[in-house]
Amino acid sequence: MTIKEVSNKYDITQDTLRYYERVGMIPTVTRTSGGIRDYQEADLQWVELAICMRSAGIPVEAMIEYVKLTQDGESTIPARLQLLVEQKENLLEQREKIDKMLERLSYKIKRYEVAVETGKLTWD
Amino acid sequence: MTIKEVSNKYDITQDTLRYYERVGMIPTVTRTSGGIRDYQEADLQWVELAICMRSAGIPVEAMIEYVKLTQDGESTIPARLQLLVEQKENLLEQREKIDKMLERLSYKIKRYEVAVETGKLTWD
DNA sequence: TCTTGACTTAGAGTTAACTCTAACTATTAT
DNA sequence: ATAATAGTTAGAGTTAACTCTAAGTCAAGA
Q: Among the four A46, A120, B3, B78, which has the fewest Cβ within 10 Å?
């Protein structure tokens, strides 16, 4: 699969795909004899993981560290486990913050809905 | 309340407090006769809202827009409502992404836990 | 009165995560 | 064979959200 196809498939720019590879957020992608990227299934799985992590807000740095560890063999499994557990905790924290804000928003929205209906702002 | 006290209370730098005010993320804070910030209860509520929104990942731009609308009287209530509904939808989307990643992380973590116990990586 | 420490503003600098540019090479269609 | 298209790298530029610096003002204690 060419970089263009991958770009379309995952709706991500070619620049970003090259950037992810360059900084080590995904391992080096398979090339053709001419040196052109030719994404294999394994490469695509890395891309997909990278996109998923980034969209959840996990920093590029963490992903780079994880990729490094996977390249260094099975002795790094405990370190990988620790890294993933840390990121999971971060995400749980972030979800807490979002939930808190969602509640607050719901309250304000209800208040404004009443105001729009009645023409008057009520409470506080 | 001085900026220092607010800074300590909410664990946010004085620089950031001034920045929030400067860009209009919170309305202008009450001053002493000498021009020094003297946060009143209403000011603190804005600060708290700003911190809550930012920690949930709502962009500064959206908050600025919201503050502008609140300064422009009750005629802007429908616009405020729309803004808040949009932000709520964004947060729900973001939470979805986090949940997806959390599931993925849990799966990987389980796999690595088994690997650490048995000394062997299983599945895929 | 003098100094210390907290405050002020304006504006420059930093960081993360892209995003773009330039100069070049390779592949494909005519 | 050659033009158009798509790819390559190295490195500069951009954006959001702070964060820091400089130069100055103000209030309280020795």
A: A120
Question: Residue A37: phi, psi to the nearest 5?
Answer: -60, 130
Q: Do A85 and B116 touch (CB under 8 A)?
A: no
Q: What is the CATH number of domain B3-118?
A: 1.10.1660.10
Q: Do A95 and B91 touch (CB under 8 A)?
A: no
**Which stretches in chain A have pLDDT values below 70?**
124
Query: Which amino acid type is present at position A99?
Result: D
User: Which chain A residues touch B109 with a CB distance below 8 Å?
Assistant: 81, 84-85, 88
> Which pTM was predicted?
0.91
Cα gap B61→B18, rounded to integer Å: 16
Which nucleotide, over all strands, has the C1' atom closest to the CA of B34?
A: D26
**Domain layout of chain B by residue ranges:** 3-118
The tokens for B83 are 């803004």
What's the pLDDT at A13? 94
Cα(B108)–Cα(B95) distance, rounded to whole angstroms?
A: 20
CA distance A66 to A71: 9
Token duo for residue B95: 């939470």
